[in-house]
Amino acid sequence: MKLQTVSIFVDDQQRAVDFYTNRLGFEVAADVPLGEYRWLTVVDPARPDGTQISLEPKGHPAAARFTDALIADGIPFCMLGVEDVQAEYERLVALGETFTQPPTEMGPVIIAVLDDTCGNLLQLAQFIR
Predict the structure, then answer these.
(1) In sequence order, which residues have a C-beta less than 8 Å from that of residue 96 and are 6 or more positions away?
(2) Rounded to a whole number, what is the distance in angstroms from the first to the last CA of the chain?
(3) Taking residues 98-117, what's their average pLDDT?
(4) If we measure between CA atoms, which residue out of 62, 54, 56 comes closest to residue 4?
(5) Residues 6+ positions from 106 with CB-CB distance below 8 Å
(6) Confidence class of residue 74 from pLDDT cuts 50, 70 and 90?
(7) Which of 10, 25, 34, 67 could form a disulfide with 16 if both were Cys (CB 3.0 to 4.6 A apart)?
(8) Percent of the chain clearing pLDDT 90 (strictly above)
(9) How many CB atoms lie within 10 A of CB 9?
(10) What is the pLDDT of residue 129?
(11) What is the reported pLDDT for 45?
């Protein structure tokens, strides 16, 4: 058994796919029209058979309340591993992206918190070896 797909609830699927591909470097794994929405997943291009992220529409009222509460409390929805948090922070800030927390060392990890422009905070993490 393996983790195949995780969902991130997004305000706008097109804006989300643009952000996750053009800014974060993921690539589209599936894009299937389903009426008003799409089955839309992205994956790490270095691991095309790896875990996919479903950019799930935030249509259900519970999803909106959940993600709004996380944002209000400053809690990231998920963690993305990177090789160099400082370099990613500088690259994304130069592209105009917003961080709610700059790179901060916390024991065995350096983290930064990024707004994904689609209703979520994402934590970038670099484990110190």
Answers:
(1) none
(2) 29
(3) 97
(4) 54
(5) none
(6) very high
(7) 10
(8) 97
(9) 22
(10) 75
(11) 97
